[in-house]
């Protein structure tokens, strides 16, 4: 360990430090699930976690990298409130970071997901529902898009990737802390929930007759998308209220899942805003 500054603040410089080992270990899904914690990096995402009231276990700061005075002031305020702050050397933080230009701020955050029954279903609610999504980057991007359109939440159905995986957290750009993410084990559980709450389900398929912009959207609504490789199973398509396709006129055979979700979410928002005017 090195010591730095007038108050002799301890600076962690060794990769064998137990906290550093824990940060690395939380890259493993089983470890995250067992400990109920995950790592988030970046000034904006960490700030959003703090502002949203998520439990912060430890703030990780590299003083030689964190140049933003407002972020430094936020760290000092959190430390004064009793949040643990660990200061790392520039070199060690860079080794832990997956970014080309590490911002010097990260946090270990206590993870939490919502149960389906706790999601608020308002008259204008829009949900993105993902069946067995496997790519954490896609999931994080979809969470960010749901946040951008003012959506009511993301629902994960079946065996899905972890919303607290490093790639998902990074891609969400802090929206993970603003959007309710719920998980339901089975499709039956999801369809029981939509019947109970009167939620319209729009499914997606490249073979659908209706184009996405010609469908009548009504809220509350759930846009159900399948996994990246297989799409939605036919039995789930048949259980929806409407099935739509996104027209493709070029040579590409399919759209990236997160892109498709963005197209459909914004189209639903366009229809709903227009109907409210």
UniProtKB/TrEMBL annotation:
InterPro entries per the UniProt record, alphabetical: Alpha/beta_knot_MTases (IPR029028), MRM3-like_sub_bind (IPR053888), Ribosomal_eL30-like_sf (IPR029064), rRNA_Methyltransferase (IPR051259), SpoU_MeTrfase (IPR001537), SpoU_subst-bd (IPR013123), tRNA_m1G_MTases_N (IPR029026)
Domain RNA 2-O ribose methyltransferase substrate binding per the UniProt entry, residue ranges: 39-115
Classification via CDD domains: SpoU-like_rRNA-MTase (cd18095)
One GO CC annotation: cytoplasm
Segments crossing the lipid bilayer: none
Biological process according to GO: methylation; RNA processing
GO molecular function, one term: RNA methyltransferase activity
Keyword annotations: Methyltransferase, Transferase
Pfam families found in the cross-reference section: MRM3-like_sub_bind, SpoU_methylase
Family: Belongs to the class IV-like SAM-binding methyltransferase superfamily. RNA methyltransferase TrmH family.
Protein name: rRNA methylase
Source organism of this protein record: Actinoalloteichus fjordicus
Lineage: Bacteria, Bacillati, Actinomycetota, Actinomycetes, Pseudonocardiales
């Amino acid at each position: 360990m090195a010591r730095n500054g007038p108050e002799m603040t301890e600076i962690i410089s060794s990769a064998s430090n137990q906290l550093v080992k824990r940060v690395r270990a939380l890259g493993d899904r089983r470890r995250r699930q067992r400990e109920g914690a995950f790592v988030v990096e970046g000034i904006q995402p960490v700030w959003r976690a703090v502002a949203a009231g998520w439990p912060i276990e430890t703030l990780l700061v590299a003083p030689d990298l964190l140049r933003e005075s407002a972020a430094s002031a936020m760290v000092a305020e959190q430390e004064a409130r009793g949040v643990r702050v660990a200061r790392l050397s520039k070199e060690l933080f860079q080794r832990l970071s997956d970014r080309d230009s590490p911002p010097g701020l990260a946090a270990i955050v206590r993870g939490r997901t919502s149960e389906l029954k706790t999601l608020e279903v308002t008259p204008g609610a829009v949900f993105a529902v993902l069946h067995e999504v496997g790519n954490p980057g896609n999931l994080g991007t979809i969470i960010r898009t749901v946040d951008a359109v003012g959506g009511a939440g993301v629902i994960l159905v079946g065996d899905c990737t972890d919303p607290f995986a490093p790639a998902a957290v990074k891609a969400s750009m802090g929206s993970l802390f603003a959007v309710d993410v719920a998980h339901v084990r089975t499709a039956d559980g999801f369809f029981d929930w939509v019947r109970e709450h009167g939620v319209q389900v729009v499914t997606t398929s490249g073979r659908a007759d209706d184009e996405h912009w010609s469908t009548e959207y009504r809220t509350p609504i759930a846009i159900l998308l399948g996994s990246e490789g297989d799409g939605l199973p036919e039995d789930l398509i048949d259980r929806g209220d409407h099935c739509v396709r996104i027209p493709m006129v070029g040579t590409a055979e399919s759209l990236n899942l997160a892109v498709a979700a963005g197209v459909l979410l914004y189209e639903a928002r366009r229809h709903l805003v227009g109907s409210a005017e």
